[in-house]
Task: inverse folding
């Protein structure tokens, strides 16, 4: 599964909108800065049909260092949760339902049936 970087995303948007990469980079970075700012304030960010970002408080717990097996206390912290929106979920579901691409017949190898063996 390929990873798409911010740089590649900026290039794709610039090509699709016929804007310069610099303009798109400023816009994308501004958007990301606003997302970070709102989530750091504890606000919920709803992007219709795409999804919802919100922060939740994760409780503190006791964990174990796997190397030393020593018990350590993990303090409570805030984490970002994402709930998938309707259109994004539909897109994911449709891509799962699509049949895998079949290989061309010329690349398929003929195999002989295995002889049956008797079990006692």
Result:
């Amino acid at each position: 599964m390929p990873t798409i970087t911010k740089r590649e995303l900026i290039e794709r948007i610039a090509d699709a909108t016929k804007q310069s990469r610099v303009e798109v980079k400023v816009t994308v970075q501004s958007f990301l800065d606003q997302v970070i700012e709102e989530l750091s304030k504890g606000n919920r960010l709803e992007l219709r049909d795409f999804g919802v970002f919100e922060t939740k408080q994760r409780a503190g717990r006791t964990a174990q260092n796997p190397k030393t097996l020593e018990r350590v206390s993990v303090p409570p912290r805030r984490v970002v949760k994402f709930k998938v929106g309707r259109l994004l979920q539909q897109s994911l579901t449709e891509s799962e339902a699509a049949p895998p691409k079949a290989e061309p017949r010329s690349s398929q190898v003929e195999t002989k049936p295995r002889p049956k063996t008797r079990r006692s």
